[in-house]
Design brief:
Length: 428
């Protein structure tokens, strides 16, 4: 007999089934709760609420486990490429050689964007936040490809929209950076791989030859893999919620980008660098701030340490630490900010206070260090996050559409004024 949960309310007993996921995660199915009892649940921030079932990503925060479609993140980061992982997330299986070649060929073919999009870009001031530019350009694709507005699109048409997104996202991300810098934009170079092409569009200048550093390209590839999906977080849930209205995929992804923008989500690695800069401006005494972090009466908190989901360690941090070390060694960057970061890292990994409280350097800490070393401005960090998260968003949107999930419609408990008579303005 399958498990169930019983609710006792107003002298009545109600029974609700317990469903078990493939990794033995139990959940009470309350789909009929309101219909049967008249009750709803309150769960601020949805911390205890499952909004869907999904076969894409498994995350166990207590054990430090992250898997895409059943594959360990450690194996994918070491043995795969970002494009392979993108295919895996979207299509459910790792590609064969033929499938991979066809997939990358399609993406390469669609890297160019309509020239009129440059007119939109030209409308942004140079001080516009790159995330605002990126989300706007992505959303504009629905105007350039009106076929995407059809909620009854064929699988081939849906696939084309997904390919377009993967192909054009690096172009838009690089253009958002160029807009901020006041530089002319670069067009894609289809002779390069995904990450190398992006780096060239970012950093190449008309006045000099640009050569992609393979160590940097590899580090970026790993970073994108680590950020590719993370189950039902704020931005991913936003993509699914917007998509549930049968709006276009471009609008859904644009909404996800905007959800990612906040400092509590995708902006965390930016907060790391801002913290390091604040320590530097205060004299660069890392020990002073480590002591402040230990003082429970001090409001200071170390950014980039610990994780609200991973309770023991972030499996992504171990992987990206090596990439960060490789980049710093290869580039030979001399930056007092990064010296402070190294000091904080050493303390967090060795000081009993931080070790006992699981305040380990997380993926945001190391990704912030890498982006800083590459010369990427802090307000571009979240754009880099979005570039990596794109395959996951697409996969989540696709799954939601294929399952025919209903439109999202959360409930609330009303706490405002009760019914009252209208008062004419002359009597107020």
């Amino acid at each position: 007999m399958s498990d169930s949960a019983k609710l006792f309310y107003k002298g009545q007993e109600f029974e609700f089934p317990v469903i078990i996921g493939t990794e033995n995660e139990p959940a009470i199915d309350i789909a009929k709760l309101r219909n049967d009892t008249g009750l709803i649940t309150i769960d601020s921030g949805f911390k205890n609420t499952g909004s869907t079932t999904s076969s894409i990503t498994f995350l166990d925060g207590e054990e430090g486990i992250l898997r895409y479609r059943g594959y360990r993140i450690e194996d994918l980061a070491e043995k795969s490429s970002f494009m392979e992982v993108a295919y895996l997330l979207i299509h459910g299986e790792l590609p064969t050689q033929t499938q991979f070649e066809d997939f990358t060929k399609q993406i390469t073919y669609h890297t160019l964007v309509h020239e009129d999009i440059k007119k939109i870009l030209d409308g942004f001031p140079s001080n516009a936040h790159p995330m605002g530019v990126l989300s706007s350009l992505i959303c504009s694709l629905s105007a350039f490809y009106p076929d995407s507005l059809n909620p009854n699109s064929t699988p081939e048409e849906v696939n084309l929209s997904m390919v377009r997104l993967l192909a054009k996202m690096p172009t838009f991300a690089a253009w958002a950076y160029k807009n901020k810098m006041g530089h002319p934009v670069n067009y894609p170079d289809n002779s390069l791989d995904y990450c190398s092409n992006f780096l060239k569009m970012m950093f190449a200048l008309p006045a000099e030859r640009y050569q992609v550093d393979p160590v940097v390209a590899k580090a970026l590839d790993v970073l994108l893999i680590l950020h590719a999906d993370h189950e039902q977080n704020c931005s991913t849930s936003t993509v699914r919620m917007v998509g549930s209205s049968q709006g276009p995929i471009y609008a859904s992804i644009s909404a996800g980008i905007n959800a990612l923008w906040g400092p509590l989500h995708g902006g965390a690695n930016q907060s790391v660098i801002e913290m390091l800069e604040a320590i530097k401006s205060d004299g660069g005494n890392a020990k002073k701030y480590l002591d402040k972090a230990k003082d429970k009466n001090d409001s200071f908190r170390l950014m980039g340490f610990g994780h609200r989901v991973y309770k023991n360690f972030d499996p992504r941090a171990t992987i990206i630490k090596k990439a960060a070390d490789d980049v710093l060694d290869k580039l030979g960057v001399k930056d007092p900010i990064l010296d402070i970061a190294k000091e904080l890292e050493f303390a967090a990994l060795n000081d009993p206070y931080f070790v006992e409280r699981k305040l380990y350097p997380n993926v945001d800490f190391y990704s912030g260090i890498i982006y800083r070393a590459l010369g990427i401005p802090t307000d571009m960090f979240t754009v880099m996050f979005a570039l990596g998260r794109l395959p996951g968003w697409i996969a989540q949107w696709k799954e939601m559409i294929q399952k025919g999930e209903p439109i999202s419609r959360p409930r609330q408990v009303y706490t405002g004024a009760i019914e009252r008579d209208y008062v004419a303005m002359t009597r107020r």
